[in-house]
Amino acid sequence: MSVPVDRSSPAVVLLSGGLDSATCLALACRDHDAVHALSFRYGQRHRVELTAAADLAAAAGVEHVVIDIDLRAFGGSALTADVDVPKHASVDDLDDRGIPVTYVPARNTIFLSFALALAEVRAASTIYLGVNALDYSGYPDCRPEFVEAFQLLADRATRAGVEHRGPGHAVTIATPLLDLTKAEIVRLGADLGVDHARTTSCYDPIERDGGWAACGRCDSCLLRRKGFADAGLVDPIAYADAGRP
């Protein structure tokens, strides 16, 4: 979704600590004078992503708000319940798999609702959401139709939206990565100076030597690895299966 840039208006970035949200953070910092990062402690089984998000926000010098909610109360996902995270031999195994068990029910709807509230309070004109074309076919709340529907909600359900009289939206839901491949996102991040070593993508990280290593075989790891390989760049994070291709 193309967004007219107003440097003087703040932006809110949903920051998970992964490749996509880190790239959105870099885009927002490039295009806005004030940026507010928003992350969630939502009952996810592994908190390494929050450490990565805090590290990225600190490096960018932006406000970082962390909200506590507990989606374990609902379960229904391998990320919030006692359900095994699927592992695969290669990225080719991910085709035609339907909605994966790593989908967290209504997560983006919930996160965007909080982001919309923060945007109103901070007088932000833009919320950055790092969904992309490789994700929306699997996750229903990463599709263009979802973004369009939430944009309509933002226009109707907020004071800023109701009182807005100018062109466009009072608060725009920006998805600058929507039509990009993982390789294009990796290249864009590199061009923007994203420190990919600070990011994490793994759904099932493994504690090792006082730190964490990505499993290398979950959906997210496989897509990340393919993205770096297709971009011709070296992925700087540690993988538990580093000896395997």
Instruction: Please indicate the count of domains.
Output: 1
Largest sheet: 5 strands, parallel
Helical amount = 25-40%
How many helices in DSSP terms? 8
Over the alpha carbons, how many angstroms does the gyration radius reach? 17 Å
Helix/strand order: EHEHEHEHHHEHEEH
Sum up the overall morphology in one term: globular
The assigned structural class equals alpha/beta
Counted beta strands: 7
CATH names the topology as: Rossmann fold
Supply the CATH class.
Alpha Beta
**CATH H-level superfamily:** HUPs
CATH architectural category: 3-Layer(aba) Sandwich
How large is the share of residues in beta strands?
5-15%
On the 0 to 100 scale, the average pLDDT is: 92
Separation of the first and last Cα atoms: 35 Å
Quaternary structure classification: single chain
Quick description:
The protein is an alpha/beta fold.
Describe the structure.
The structure is a single chain. This protein is an alpha/beta fold and 245 residues long. It has a single domain (11-200), classed as HUPs (Rossmann fold), CATH 3.40.50. The protein is built from eight helices and seven strands. The chain has helices at residues 19-31, 48-60, 107-122, 133-136, 144-156, 159-163, 182-192, 219-231; strands spanning 11-14, 35-41, 63-68, 126-128, 172-174, 206-208, 211-213. The strands form two sheets. The protein has a five-stranded parallel beta sheet with strand order 3-2-1-4-5, sandwiched between helices.
